[in-house]
Amino acid sequence: MNTKKRHYWRNLYLIVAFLILYLPIFYLIFYSFNSSGGMNHFAHFTWAHYQEIWSDQRLILITVQTFFLAFLSSLLATIIGTSGALGIYSVRNPQVRTLILGLNNILLVSPDVIIGSSFLIFFTVLGIKLGFISVLLSHIAFSIPIVVLMVLPKLQEMNSSFINVAQDLGANHWQILKGVILPIITPGMIAGYFMAFTYSLDDFAVTFFVTGNGFETLSVEIYSRARQGISLEINALSALMFLFSLVLVMGYYFISKDSPKGKRKDRKAQQNLIR
Amino acid sequence: MKAKGLYFSSYVLWLLLFVLAPVALILYQSFIGINGNFTITNYENFFKIGAYLRMTFNSVFYAGLITLITLLISYPTAYFLTRTKYKQLWLMLIILPTWINILLKAYAFIGIFSQAGPVNNSLEWLGLGSHQLLFTNTSFMLVAAYIELPFMILPIFNAIDELDESLVNVSRDLGANKFQTFWNVTFPLTLNGIKSGVQVVFIPSLSLFMLTRLIGGNKVITLGTAIEENFLVTQDWGMGSTIGVILIAAMILIMFLTGEKKRRGR
C-alpha cells in the first residue's frame, strides 16, 4: 500500500515533468492546423499554412541554404576533426596532449555570443566579407571539437596490435589508415557528423553575428519573423522541423546502437549529444 | 612520419585561426576605445558606470534564479527517472526536446503567454484574472528554465544512476531514516552531477540574448544582450569586447567553482 502510493506520486511528478517539456512543442504544432490567424482560438482544421510554406519561395530558399550549409559544414568539420583526432592520438607527450584537448574544448564551453562576436572581429580583421563564406567557416569551426570528441575514444579503444601486424605485413602509412584505422573509427565519425549537422542546423547566435545581408539561415529568419509577432507559417515550419529532428534522433540512435560500446560510454555520448 | 604532419596541419590551423586568434582578438579589442585608440577606458567605464555594474549584477542574479528553478525541478525528475523501468528510453525522451530549434521553443511561448493565451485563459478560469505575462522578467526566467531543463536533468540522472545502491541500503540498515539517508548519502554522492548541471545551465543563462528580446521585452539585459547590442546595434566593439572578456572571466570562475574535485579513492 505504502509503496504503491509512493509510486503514484512519483509517476504523477514525472508525468507533469514530461508535460512541461512537451506541451509547448505540441501546442505549437497543434495551432499549425488552425484556420484562424492566431495561437489562441482553434477555428477549424486546415493544411493552409503548410501550403503557404510551399508557395513561400523565400522560405524555401532559406531552408535549402540552411540544409546545404549544414551538410557542407559538417562534412568539412568531420574531415578536419577526424584528422585532428588522429593527430592527437599520435601525440605521445601527455602534457602536450592535455593542452591540445584543453584548447579543443574551448569552443565547446564558450557561450555563443563570445564565439559570434570574436569571429566577427576575426572576419573583419581578415577582410572576409560577411555572408555565406563567413557563416560556413564559423559553422565548421564550432563543429570541429565535437567531432574530435566523438572520434578520439574510438581510436583509444582500438587495439594497437592491429597496426603493428599491418606494419609487419608491410603496409605503408596510407594503407594502414585506410584498411585498419578508418573502419574502426567510422562509427565515431558518423556520430560526429550527426552532431555537427544538428549544431549547424540549430545555431542561431553565432550565425546572427557573422551573417551579412545576403545570407540567412532558418534560425535567423524565424527570429526576425517572431519579432514581428505570430504567423502560423512558423508553426507549420516547426512541425516539419520537429518531424525532421525525430528522424535525426532515430537515425543517430540507430547508428550509435550498432557500435559495441559500454553503457558508460553511451552515457558519455549522450552527454555530448545535448551540448 | 610526414603524412601525420600533413593531416594534422588542418586541425592545427583551425586551432590557431579559430580558437587562439579570436580569443586574442577579443582581448585586444577590449582595449580599443571608441576613437580607435589603445586605452583602458572601457574597463574603467565598466567598473565606474553604475549601469554596467547593475546590468552585470542583474544578469548574474537572473542566471542564478534560472539555475535554481531548473535544479529544483530537475533533481526530483532525475531521481524518479532512475527508478523507472526503461529508464534509458525515458531519458531519451528528455533529451529529444533539445534537438528542436531553440528559436521555435521561444516562439511557442509568445503564444502561450500572450494576452488571450492558454496560461491567461487558465488563470481566468481559476478566477485570478488575466495578466500581462509576455515581456516580463518572470516570463523570461520561466522560458529560460524551460529551455535549460534537459541540460540539468541529464548530468544529475547520470550521477544518481551511477550511485552504488548498496550504500543507500547500508545507511537504511544502520537506522538512518529516509531523509537522513538522502541528505548524508545520496545528495553528497551526486553533488558532482549537480555541479556539472549548474555549469551547463548558468553560463548560457548569462549570455542568452534572443530570449531577452523575444520573451523578456528587453527588460532584463543579460551580459549576452549587452554584447550583442554593442556589437550589432551601437557598433562599439571595444565596449562589447570588454563585456565579453568579463563574461569569459565569469565563465572561468564558474568552471573553477563547479569543477570536479579530485577523485577520492573509492
Secondary-structure map:
The complex is a heterodimer of chains A (275) and B (266).
Chain A (H helix, E strand, L loop, with lengths): L1 H29 L17 H8 L1 H34 L3 H16 L2 H15 L5 H26 L2 H9 L4 H30 L2 H6 L7 H10 L4 H27 L4 H12 L1
Chain B lengths: L1 H28 L11 H8 L1 H33 L4 H9 L6 H11 L5 H8 L11 H26 L2 H9 L4 H12 L1 H17 L2 H5 L8 H11 L3 H22 L8
Helix pairs in contact in B: 1-13, 2-3, 3-7, 3-10, 7-10, 8-9, 10-13, 12-13
Question: Which keywords apply here?
Answer:
heterodimer; A: 275 residues; mainly alpha; MetI-like fold; 2 domains; 12 helices; globular; B: 266 residues; 13 helices; transmembrane helix (chain B); MetI-like_sf (chain B); membrane (chain B); MetI-like (chain B)
Task: Describe this protein's structure.
The complex is a heterodimer of chains A (275) and B (266). With 275 residues, chain A is mainly α. Chain A folds into 2 domains: 1-46, no CATH class; 57-274, Orthogonal Bundle (MetI-like fold), CATH 1.10.3720.10. Helix content of chain A is 81%, strand content 0%. Chain A is built from 12 helices and no strands. Chain A is globular. Residues 259-266 of chain A have low confidence and may be disordered. Chain B is mostly helical. Helices cover 75% and strands 0% of the residues of chain B. Chain B has helices at 2-29, 41-48, 50-82, 87-95, 102-112, 118-125, 137-162, 165-173, 178-189, 191-207, 210-214, 223-233, 237-258. Chain B is globular and about 70 Å long. In chain B, 43% of the residues are buried. The chains are: A mainly alpha (275), B mainly alpha (266). The interface between A and B is large, with 83 and 86 residues.
